[in-house]
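This part of the workshop introduces the protein records we will be handling. Getting from the letters to the tokens is the skill we practise here. The record below serves as our worked example for the rest of this section.

…
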Amino acid sequence: METTPSVRSRMSRQKARDTQVEIELRRALHSAGLRYRVHRRPLSNVRREADIVFGPARVAVFVDGCFWHGCPEHATWPKNNASFWRTKIEGNRRRDANTDSRLTEAGWASIRIWEHDDVAAAAERIRAVVEQRRPGPNSDNVDQPADQYEEK
């Protein structure tokens, strides 16, 4: 489906990275003592970039905008060019689900944060997952249960 010039120019004005929510979340994570990479591909063979990546723990964080990703609480369906926008947003949702599935298959945890989520609560949720998945000192597999590291 061809987009009109006004739709293309509107889309190009939207920030794709370093949004206010992303920056606040990164500050909260950094304050919690977590270190991460920004805007990286968790899987080199998949052309999808996570907003925040914790490599050793294999955790990818995506900060999703309510409009662009079809938030169940805040999504709106535009009346102008409705068919285009429905196709676009539903395509984004399918791509998000596919990304999550591919990351899970590769042993990664995928965390999705909505732009309206409380930043402190989101940071705490991420911290808990990262710390749970962080490899132990003698570990070569982050997916092993904690009791695998104890002597029997």
